Amino acid sequence: MNWIAIGSLSDIPPRGARCVAAPQGKIAVFRTADDQVFAIDDHCPHKGGPLSQGIVHGAAVTCPLHNWVISLETGKALGADEGSVRTIPVKVEGERLFIALEALASKAA
Amino acid sequence: MTEKLVIIGNGMAPGRMLEHLLEAAPDRYAMTIFNAEPRVNYDRIMLSPVLSGEKEFDEIVIHGDGWYIKHGITLYKGHRIVAIDRDAKTVTSDRGVTESYDRLVIATGSVPFIIPVPGKDLPGVLTYRDLDDVNAMLLAAQSRAKAIVIGGGLLGLEAAAGLKERGMDVTVLHVMPTLMERQLDPAAGYLLQKAVEARGIKVMTKANTKAIVGNGKVEGVELMDGTVIPATLVVMAVGIRPNSALAKDAGLEVNRGIVVDDRMETSDPAIMALGECAEVGGHVYGLVAPLYEMARVAAARLTDGEDKRFVHSDTPTKLKVTGIDLYSLGDFADGDDREEIILRDASAGIYKRVVLQDNRIIGTVLFGETADGAWFNDLKKEATDISEMRDTLIFGQAFQGGASSDPLAAVAALADDAEICGCNGVCKGKITGAITSKGLTGLDDVRAHTKASASCGSCTGLVEQLLKLTLGEAYNPAAVQPMCGCTSLGHDDVRRLIKAKGLKTIPAVMQELEWKTSCGCAKCRPALNYYLVCDWPDQYADDYQSRFINERVHANIQKDGTYSVVPRMWGGVTSADELRAIADVVDKFRIPTVKVTGGQRIDMLGIRKEDLPAVWADLGKAGFVSGHAYAKGLRTVKTCVGSDWCRFGTQDSTGLGIRIEKFMWGSWTPAKVKMAVSGCPRNCAEATCKDVGVVCVDSGYEIHFAGAAGLDIKGTEVLGLVKTENEALEVIVALVQMYREQARYLERIYKWAKRIGTAEIKRQILDDAERRRSLFDRFVFSQKFAQVDPWSERVSGKDKHEFRPMASVGFAEAAE
Ligand code: SRM
Ligand SMILES: Cc1cc2nc3c(=O)[nH]c(=O)nc-3n(C[C@H](O)[C@H](O)[C@H](O)COP(=O)(O)OP(=O)(O)OC[C@H]3O[C@@H](n4cnc5c(N)ncnc54)[C@H](O)[C@@H]3O)c2cc1C
Ligand code: SF4
Ligand code: FES
Predict the structure, then answer these.
(1) Are B423 and B286 in contact (CB under 8 A)?
(2) How far apart are alpha carbons B739 and B752 in whole angstroms?
(3) Torsions phi, psi of A97, nearest 5?
(4) pLDDT band at residue B590, thresholds of 50, 70 and 90?
(5) Which of B59, B124, B439, B641 has the smallest CB count inside 10 Å?
(6) What is the DSSP string of B213-261?
(7) Helix, strand, coil shares of chain B as percentages rounded to 5?
(8) Would the CB atoms of A49 and B811 count as touching at under 8 Å?
(9) How much is the average pLDDT of B159-181?
(10) So what's the pLDDT on residue B228?
(11) Of B108, B131, B101, which is closest to residue B36 (Cα–Cα)?
């Protein structure tokens, strides 16, 4: 896999998110309370809300526009809602964070 | 091979039957349900609270989608069965699905009766039966125009109360001389009419509908006497008919309903029927208690279990309109062989009547005070000879045998087999037994384990008394409404414990109060953060990760992910310099929309998140601070021009509004707070629909509160009149601080006030000067930490990470 560095863990507040700009659109990178890191497209399956702006709880985020809850692990909407968002592989090496480039390429293709 | 069970209709009766069936023989049948309504099984009884806004639809779902998956039941939502082929043993839906059965259950419920008058099909004429009807009514209610409900029975009155709650102007037309004449005698019907009218609903009895008039849509109802009453919504609630057409087409025996024997079998041994569509022993039913009994019988039949037979019994009628208590049971017609005992208390609006035959109760009507309903029902069921207690019978159970009039004692005195929940047929012994053996601690537990109080909810008070009786001090009624799925504690308990235990961080609250999740959810975290900000202004470090995005970045998120920015314009007053500065910012950042808001200030919409700090920096240079247009906090203080300019102005309303806004801006509150000051009773600043309002008069300042003009419309209540501006400020600040300290998160002032009571608020704020002063002081202290302009903080670098992407990837390659 082709990993690209995006920064370090401390760039993201715990229970928070930051964006990574990519040609195909923003990627939201999340850090949970127990320092797990996840990356998904910053685009809610409901109406495209910016998931990076939501409240992070457990390994899930609540979309800021209409409160869908999205699993960070699977990208799937939880509860009664249906839909999913693309997840992007993340690697944490010490403090440093990487996401997988293939995933980016595949969307462009 | 597993037998195939097919059910037509997914209402309350078959839902309950399935529960019994799954308990007794989970694997016996492969089960398929067809439901014409496109949804899961829900508590139809509770549609009225959904209509009035007391409940959400989610809260009344009985079996969610997961339940069907878990039990391997196939549910076809939105499929109406149009044919039963009894020879081939198949059913076919209107969407073309055909399914074969070994056993078939018909549970198609009822259809609302529609009076065959001209205009009955006009758009705007509704019935009241399912969620679609409720949604249609809610949509119509948004106009807050006139509605007519035809039918003064249970359903009609519940619909009228709900529509009124939603702000409509409602008239009930009833053909008989008194309301609910089938369940109430004329005396109780009269009291009911007075109670309904007291809520602002108009009632016309002996009103016979001739036609519904309108051109392309409803415009009114014409009565036989020629009167035309205008309305844009007409709800027909004149009765129901068993929905038996399908069975009739299939050649089953149908009378009023589908004829079944006392084991719910129709004239075809492979087919059963239950619910409102079924007719047993000449009776058809319209309340759930007997239907649940049918469900028990049918499940036993389907599992070849115990030989259960359906026996007719009277079901008490109760009306689910908050604040109107009525109870009626059995037969209360006059007759030579009957005697009656009546109690009237005109000042308290109480009427009680018990009808006796041979010293035994055969009917009861209670209005205004219904606590003894269960007891009378019990005496009737047991056919108890009441001659011994005849003199005191009407006063109720508490007066028998010299017992005290303590309601707990009355409940304690009930026999173990006394029925508590009429809907679900649950007796006292079953509830107290479950509380002890299963360690239940609250209402929700009792509902889950016994079903008592889980349907119409009118026995909730009795169940709570049983909890109190059985658990003693250990019973904590506040546990009833948990904050969210992460805890079993309610908001009030959490607020109390935060103070009592000195909890000062979110993790401390979650640890000490035994949160069930590791870090809460999007419901509880913002609430906890607010409670801590409010309770420990100097010590708590605001947790921005627990704030909704708008409050985290101090701007309002828009549907496309951009933001809007609204600076304060104190009291709605601005200047050429301010307007010029705004114009410059709009040009510089190419802001697409500039709009004057409903709150007397200017909104700039469509700003990219990355640009926010720079926009604020420019606005800051011109002296603007954040308008908190996003905050659960102080929003706007609208003013009118007042004595400065207006020929009617009595006081300086503009000045007072600005003074209040400058004093109170920055404070966080449970929900948003909007205020207004009008210079005279003409009230051009609309102070009488605000959270807090002031109407200036010659003699001083009339302070108003608890108004609403958003989702609900409600005029304010008057807190009191004060003489000086200083007094006005002190009272307003103390009131808001009391609200900050007591209300539940997201509860606006008018909802909080309804819960606490206006009298109590007046007592604490107006009558108790010491208390008012200490509330005022606490507000002033907390403002030291709150009155920091969040925009300038961010311009100087706070939360930088919020406004910049952490990295850019893939662009270089793309550009080469
Ligand atoms: C901008 C404005 C409309 C306008 O163009 O005039 C507005 C815009 C919004 N209102 Fe409002 N309301 C605006 C005045 C009002 C008023 C009138 C007033 O304040 O005099 C009301 C009725 C009064 C009241 O609050 O009771 C009003 C009742 C609501 C409600 C219903 C609140 C309720 O409890 O009933 C909501 C929904 C909510 O808060 O949950 C809401 C929510 C919203 C939100 C925040 C929706 C959202 O969550 O995104 C809108 C934000 C748009 C934005 O980004 O600017 N807005 N909103 C007004 C801003 C006033 C200001 O200067 O701050
Ligand atoms: C607003 C309201 C308030 C009420 N309040 C109370 C109360 O306080 N106390 C009380 O005891 N009772 C109350 N009731 C009555 C109670 O809700 C009903 O008695 C009960 O729901 C009837 O249950 P059921 O299963 O027989 O039929 P329903 O719950 O009506 O279910 C029938 C279902 O079958 C579906 N169906 C019909 N035909 C077909 C077909 N051909 N194919 C597939 N599906 C079909 C319908 O869409 C419907 O979903 C109230 C009713 C209403 C409407
Ligand atoms: S009324 Fe308020 S919430 Fe509704 S669309 Fe307009 S601004 Fe948005
Ligand atoms: S866009 Fe995310 S919930 Fe609607």
Answers:
(1) no
(2) 7
(3) -115, 140
(4) very high
(5) B439
(6) E-SSS--EEEETTS-EEE-SEEEE-S-EEE--HHHHHTT--BSSSEEE-
(7) 40, 20, 40
(8) no
(9) 93
(10) 95
(11) B108
Q: What is the pTM of this model?
A: 0.52
Please count the CA atoms within 13 angstroms of the CA of B370 that sit on its side-chain side. Answer: 24
Q: How far apart are CA B80 and CA B35, in angstroms?
A: 6
ipTM, interface predicted TM-score of the complex: 0.65
Q: Which residues lie with the beta carbon below 6 Å from any ligand 1 atom?
A: B 556, 558, 564, 566, 595, 597-599, 601, 603, 627, 629, 635-636, 674, 708-711, 748
- Give the number of whichever ligand sits closest to the CA of residue B593: 1
Are A65 and A44 within 8 A, CB to CB?
yes
Per the CB < 8 A criterion, the answer to whether B125 and B218 are in contact is: yes
Give the number of the atom of ligand 4 that is nearest the alpha carbon of residue A81.
Answer: 3
A·B CB contacts under 8 A: 98
Residues of A with CB under 8 A from a CB of B: 4-7, 11-16, 18-24, 26-27, 29, 32-34, 47-50, 53-58, 62, 64-65, 67, 69, 80, 99, 101, 104
End-to-end CA distance of chain B: 68
Q: Assign B401 a pLDDT band (cuts: 50, 70, 90).
A: low
pLDDT digits (tens, 9 = 90+) for B622-640: 999 999 999 999 999 999 9
Q: Note the pLDDT tens digit of each residue in B683-696.
A: 999 999 999 999 99
Best residue for ligand 4 mutational test, from A40, A42, A47 (most atoms within 8 Å of Cβ) = A47
Structure tokens at B283: 């009776």
Torsion over CA: B394, B395, B401, B407 (sign): positive
In this structure, which ligand is nearest to the CA of A69?
A: 4
Show the low-confidence residues of chain A (pLDDT under 70). 80, 101-109
Mutate to test the pocket of ligand 4, among A51, A55, A65, A78 (most ligand atoms within 8 A of CB): A65
pLDDT band at B55 (very low <50, low <70, confident <90, very high): confident
